[in-house]
TrEMBL record:
Pfam families: TPP_enzyme_C, TPP_enzyme_M, TPP_enzyme_N
Gene name of the encoded protein: ilvB
Cofactor: Mg(2+); thiamine diphosphate
Domain Thiamine pyrophosphate enzyme N-terminal TPP-binding: from-to ranges: 23-134
GO terms (BP aspect): isoleucine biosynthetic process; L-valine biosynthetic process
Pathway it works in: Amino-acid biosynthesis; L-isoleucine biosynthesis; L-isoleucine from 2-oxobutanoate: step 1/4; Amino-acid biosynthesis; L-valine biosynthesis; L-valine from pyruvate: step 1/4
Manner of cofactor binding, per the entry note: Binds 1 Mg(2+) ion per subunit. Binds 1 thiamine pyrophosphate per subunit.
Protein name: Acetolactate synthase
PANTHER family for this protein: ACETOLACTATE SYNTHASE CATALYTIC SUBUNIT, MITOCHONDRIAL, THIAMINE PYROPHOSPHATE ENZYMES
Native species: Stratiformator vulcanicus
Catalyzed reactions per annotation: 2 pyruvate + H(+) = (2S)-2-acetolactate + CO2
Length: 602
């Protein structure tokens, strides 16, 4: 089995040591190096101190970055994984350190992100005795990992690390936990006893690596040939499989319009005329209408998430569905497929491109005319403001100013996340980082931190909201101390904007703890006049400067371009706070559980 599963291994040379023995922690660190790990985001504690001593010894070959919170470190590991496809690595001590990784592990599981999370554990002799900082991490994370281990024998360290990286990165990627008791970290082996490339023991693990059967390819092409209104509905699986180039080639060859999930953004060029951009709850009207009217739905690397489908039994009910996914459990899970195909998406598109012929391409000119009419009738838009900076304007203008640099953009969760998906155009995969399945506030800053570690010479931007930003604001220290040049565009409306929007739309505007300022302000109960005073809370510029990061605040549209230019041109990290109105709503919007017929555009 081990020969069938690809895994990266480094040269067989042993690490430089003063003795002929290695302890368990040193073996694990050497294994990380041999699996081409460049960064470990690790926060130390009592149960992981041997691991950190081993990381110190290996610092010339493996960079350890100290986050200021374990969750921040795990999201930074995701930043590496989401932009490279390699497994990101994070590490924490036992107990609270380990449980602080749980949210990011769950996030990685829902978004199919390859990650290896390593946690220190109390010695085996006291496991189960409620020892100091003991938490049963395997049990805690069982349902939110792709797989999980506790190392109980030093002889198993190299095998478990090899298996962890293999499982995390093959098939449908996901997070793997390695729980490492302190006594095993400190146990020793003679160097000549250690096999750093041992055989794996994964008898039940058979990830899909194959492409489709030729008959399935012919079925897809036959369905396309007989369609008049086909549409490509593309998700994160396209990016994970590295299929974006093949997808673009197929779409251009067939003329089929393309719409993407929030996870799929960048898999097809946003500025291409065939692109319908994002679909779903806050997707474009034309994408949602096209899905509703299509007679053939080519669902590639998607999971028919409820934020996309709305009322499930009325989603794409007029057309035939072809569903291609590497994970068999996704087939028929939410929506019945007429042609279900369990296969690697890149290989599927390669086969389609190889077999498609001119006579198999339908005439979709009328279909494009209809879509163009919808595009003109229902464009993404926002109101014109005189002096104030609307969030939509700030994001779209930022894109216009930096598009030539092809930046990496991470976001928090909320209105700014959806506006970024709408108004920042991505023409390449792996440049957009969003906590999509779990919707984790606090994702943006540390995720960008990981990207900046991996790509220090590229432009990396965190577009954040004041609510999300404060969830992991401590990582400003990591940016400065580790010299990570993240640019932060902080859209501050003093509210939890998305929840406020739902209050406005569905709860008669009653404010229930969505104002982020002092409770004695009238805005706390929704009684403000809609303006922000000069004393917005907190003082983010002062906070950033306290961490040693240059920062400024802008409120007037006329100041914005120059401020963005200063942010981008300043060496190192930078925070630009933009004061925005809190009455803005993310539109279009399909209310939860509703259909395209219920879409809100005003």
């Amino acid at each position: 089995m081990s020969e069938e599963l690809p895994v990266s291994t480094a040269s067989p040379t042993l690490p430089q040591t003063e003795t002929s023995t290695l302890n368990g922690a040193e073996i694990l660190v050497e294994c990380l190096i041999r699996h081409d790990v460049d960064f470990v985001f690790a926060y130390p504690g009592g149960a992981s101190m041997p691991l950190h001593q081993a990381l110190l010894k290996g610092r010339e070959r493996l960079r350890t970055i100290l986050p200021r919170h374990e969750q921040g470190g795990a999201f930074a590991a995701q930043g590496v994984a989401r932009t490279t496809g390699k497994a990101g690595v994070c590490m924490a001590t036992s107990g609270p350190g380990a449980t602080n990784l749980v949210t990011s592990i769950a996030d990685a599981k829902l978004d199919s992100v390859p990650m290896v999370a390593i946690t220190g554990q109390v010695p085996q002799s006291v496991i189960g005795s409620d020892a100091f900082q003991e938490t049963p991490m395997v049990e805690v994370s069982r349902a939110i990992t792709k797989h999980h281990y506790m190392i109980t024998d030093i002889h198993d360290v190299a095998r478990i690390v090899k298996e962890a990286f293999t499982i995390a990165t093959t098939g449908r990627p996901g997070p793997v936990l390695i729980d490492f008791p302190k006594d095993v970290q400190l146990a020793t082996l003679e160097a000549d006893e250690i096999d750093f490339d041992p055989p794996m023991n994964l008898p039940g693990y058979h990830p899909v690596t194959h492409g489709p059967h030729p008959d399935q390819v012919r079925q897809i092409l036959a369905a396309i040939r007989h369609s008049k209104r086909p549409i490509l509905y593309v998700g994160g699986g396209c990016i994970t499989s590295g299929a974006s180039e093949e997808l673009t080639k197929f779409a251009k060859k067939t003329g089929i319009p393309v719409t993407m999930t929030v996870m799929g953004l960048g898999s097809f060029p946003a500025e291409d005329p065939q692109c319908l951009h994002m679909l779903g709850m806050h997707g474009t009207v034309y994408a949602n209408r096209a899905i509703n009217e299509a007679d053939l739905l080519l669902a590639f690397g998607v999971r028919f998430d409820d934020r996309v489908t709305g009322k499930l039994d009325e989603f794409a009910q007029h057309g035939k569905i072809i569903h291609v996914d590497i994970d068999a459990s996704e087939i028929h899970k939410n929506k019945e497929a007429h042609i279900p195909i369990v296969a690697d998406l890149k290989k599927t598109l390669q086969a389609l491109n190889a077999m498609v012929e001119d006579e198999a391409i339908p005439d979709v000119s009328d279909w494009h005319s209809q879509i163009d009419e919808w595009k003109q009738q229902y464009p993404l838009k926002f109101r014109d403001s005189s002096d104030e900076i609307l969030q939509q304007y700030a994001i779209e203008r930022l894109w216009q100013l930096v598009r030539e640099r092809d930046p990496y953009v991470a976001v928090g969760v909320g209105q700014h996340q959806m506006w970024s998906a709408q108004f920042f155009r991505f023409n390449k995969p792996r440049h957009w980082l969003s906590s999509s399945g779990l919707g984790t506030m606090g994702f943006g800053l540390p995720a960008a931190m990981g990207v900046a570690a991996e790509f220090p010479n590229e432009l990396v931007i965190d577009i954040d909201g004041d609510g999300s930003f404060q969830m992991n604001i401590q990582e400003l220290a990591t940016l400065r101390c580790e010299n990570l040049p993240v640019k932060i565009l902080l859209l501050n409306n003093q509210h939890l904007g998305m929840v406020t929007q739902w209050e406005d739309r569905f709860m008669d505007g009653r404010r229930a703890h969505t104002y982020l300022g002092p409770v004695d302000k009238p805005e706390a109960l929704g009684q403000g006049d809609g303006t922000h005073g000069s004393d917005t809370y907190p003082d983010f510029v002062a906070i950033a400067k306290g961490y040693g990061i240059p920062a400024e605040q802008v409120r007037d549209k006329s100041e914005y371009d120059a401020a963005v230019k200063r942010m981008v041109e300043t060496d190192g990290p930078y925070l630009l706070e933009v004061i925005c109105p809190y009455q803005e709503h993310v539109l279009p919007m399909i209310p939860s559980g509703k259909t395209v017929r219920d879409i809100i555009t005003e």
